[in-house]
Amino acid sequence: MTDAPEEPTVEKTPAPLLALSEGLPPVVDTPEGLSDVVARFAEGTGPVAVDAERASGYRYSARAYLIQLRREGSGTALIDPTLVGEMGALQEVIGGTEWILHAATQDLPCLGEVGLHPGSLFDTELAGRLLGYPRVGLATLVESALGQALRKEHSAVDWSKRPLPEPWLEYAALDVEPLVALREVMRTELEEAGKAEWARQEFEFLLGFEPAQRAEPWRRTSQLHRVRSRRGLAVVRELWIARDTIAAQRDVTPSRLIPDSAIIAAAQAIPSDRGALLATAGFTGRGASRHAREWITAIREAAALGEDELPTRNARTNGPPIPRAWAEKDPEAGQRLALAKEAMTELSEHVSVPTENLLTPDTMRRVLWTPPDATAHELVEAVGEALRGYRARPWQVELTAPLLAEAILSARDAS
């Protein structure tokens, strides 16, 4: 028998690399330079592409160290917000027009800190989710929608460094270069998919975005589950608070002082003096030795707490229990959750939207754990009212309230 000829290998032609259409602009770092930007952007037309660079992983603060803008007829501007002073005039010019951002929730807080607030926005990452793109990073979307490749090699650098190297600035300018064109393509796709109104509601909702404040942020320490005792949890808490306080004072990211692994090791060993502390795994480097006194003080304070002052093993919450505990705590609730998850997965596949964008998992669990006390005839509306109480958008309520109501009824009938 003769072997069949092999299929020829077809190599994918790499997408052309996106380049700056007007060259790299200088960094604006004076009030006078900002005035020129304001005048230039006042003359432009259409929406404004906006991005900001922070020094995550290097600084404690989430402030913006570089702001990038681009508008048709105005070109691109790179602004150093640490040097240009008050930005009220810029806000007056661009605040009333639509902003195009990618992953808006990452940038809106730091932009707000310097007085920049959008009147309306278009989020390309969120649009990608609503459109069912499997990957929604900016580089992926630019290649998928515009057929161009976008460099991303400087995404995790220290943007608080001065002066900023030219390759970093080119990377930053390229982040806003394609946003206007990308928004046009995605806006058309949303219209064609019948999802333009969904996007409008989501973008309007983002205008009121504020980062969530956790009641016990220390519980996010990596590997916390390895700490078995409440006394050990107290050590974690006190060390986390001490580290966070020092990091805020020095404006460095907390993990650069001591890593989470050091906090966990100290909670297990509970060293009582400097020597024992510095012999504990993870307590190496300048941050460990320079602040050894603060670390020991935190550990001793945890060791001196009374039993009633120790943290509970599980976080206190006003919400429902973790999903895996539902079936044991309330079998009918567990059935409601299982049925709802199955229905939401089917809906997600049908409309090509991730389940977490159809409805946040927390909202779904809250409604299902304590469902409305309503008759079968009234249940859909009652569930919708509950969803609206958790700030679900109208399009989400329309799609998901009937599914949750059906899960509630089915579990009720089966019990």
TrEMBL record:
InterPro entries linked: 3'-5'_exonuclease_dom (IPR002562), Exo_C (IPR041605), HRDC-like_sf (IPR010997), HRDC_dom (IPR002121), HRDC_dom_sf (IPR044876), RNase_D-like (IPR051086), RNaseH-like_sf (IPR012337), RNaseH_sf (IPR036397)
CDD domains listed in its UniProt record: RNaseD_exo
Domain of life of the source: Bacteria
Pfam families tied to this protein: DNA_pol_A_exo1, DNA_pol_A_exoN, HRDC
HRDC domain location: 229-309
Name of the molecule in the record: Ribonuclease D
